Amino acid sequence: MPYFEWTTQLDVGVDAMNDQHQRLIDIMNLLHQRVADKAPRDEIAGLVKSLADYTVRHFRAEESYMESLSYAGLARHRRIHEELLATLADHRRAFEQGATLGDEFFAFLKLWLSAHIKGIDKKYAPGACSASGRAA
Ligand code: FEO
User: What is the pTM of this model?
Assistant: First the structure.
């Protein structure tokens, strides 16, 4: 059983965003597995980079999608994305300076999935907001 799982509770009702969330979860699972395997640090660093790069790509795509809806919660959502990227960058920097990716890091990823996708992303789901973009 993978460490992180995509379930219907994470379904935001938009296929492209669901696909991207599943890709993020795939990268997180690979990272978790390779850390558990005690893979070389260079490999782990590469996976952290993949996670960071794909996250930036996903956040841009998601923000563009919300813009297309004239979604009123966009500014707040964008700020939350910036905070997530900053926290991810902090963990990445600590790893590059010799720390290990441990429970705190993976708890952060779990919280990202449970709190952000379930709690924040789902607010732009069709039916959850009007075309005029009810505030989140
Ligand atoms: Fe799917 Fe707001 O990140």
Answer: 0.91
